[in-house]
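<instruction>
Derive structure tokens from the sequence
<entry> Chain with its tokenised backbone below:
===
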Amino acid sequence: MSNPLSPEIIQLRSDIEKQLRQTLHSPVDFQWLIQQIWNRQHTILSLSTIKRLWGYVPSNGVPRLSTLNTLSQFLGYADWNAYLVAMEQRGGNESAMFQGEGISVSALQPNDRIEVCWQPNRKCVFCYLGNNQFVVEESKKCQAAYRRPI
């Protein structure tokens, strides 16, 4: 099942599971999380929203800010933005390990773009030039970006 969620949301899920000391895998687990949020904050999130966020059911959409605020508040932050700031501060300059689907160069056409995102809030966009060469077109919070073929 594909998961189009950002690394920040994946980290949010991980932080919630760490706080709960339980991984969430099933509708029963998600319902339990909803009850924990209600007990702590008197806020309701829908079961379908939680299932989408945890990748239990497919989602192509972006979670609502109100949902991200509620989950961030569950962790003790003022809102989603405060969570992002704290995540970046605790991450320092180190990038977290990440996994993703592989891309075969043979499947690319010249001018195809590949966007790679990782924690904390980093991004790099590559353009395929052909002949197994790429150029970095955009980088966000990366240590170095070279705008030449790599």
In short: The longest strand covers residues 122-130. Helices lie at 7-20, 27-41, 47-53, 65-74, 80-91.
